[in-house]
What does this fold into?
Amino acid sequence: MSGRDTAYVWVDRDTGGQPDPAAVLLRRAGALLLGRPETELVLTHDREGRPVVRVDEVTGSVEVAVSVSRTAGLVAVAARRAGAVGVDVERIRPLPALALAHRWFPPAELAWLRDRPEAGRTVDFLRLWTAKEAVGKALGRGLRDGGLRRLMPPPGLPLRPVPGDELLRVGHPRLGGGLVLAVAVRASAQVDVEVVQRPGHEVTAERSASVERTSLPVVVRGSWSSRCSARGRL
It folds into this structure.
């Protein structure tokens, strides 16, 4: 594990069975970052509703900030020792990108999307959408309070400051497999992103440091904590 400030990401299949794949990945993340057996870890939330993995010791508790995202048949988990993190993953599929952007995004992002090549417009839309979701999770409030209207930086890597909040950074590690992945952090300096596990693969590691250059629901999804309460799952 790197000594640099790093957000680690795990992605795996979600069959809907037990044990919950999200809980499995959260314990795996906690064991890596805290250096403790998975059986000693506690899955809980902080005061702002963000999920954390905690280990209780005689001298007090040690926590790791984590984030969870689900899309059809997949679950993603991000974890970071140095501060808040948010993650979102979406499958690439046909959708009315411009119509959705017109309804949900600020005018500047709609104009940017219109100017993008039509062949890649769906992916560009999903990069903006996942960035907003990931930033909302890092903030602990999901898409509430105008989260979809929050302006995002141009998609890609490295993680880039969010306009209007230089302590928020977001970017898109390359995942492949017809997926778009976004990771957001609260940090005053650059944060690395390492994809530890990809769906259907053994645990590997790939550090993202270079620049990479049905439909979404029209009802704004709530925060991770409200969704897991309603579904009874992480």
Remarks:
- Residues 202-234 have pLDDT under 50 and may be disordered.
- Residues 28 and 147 are 30 Å apart (CA to CA).
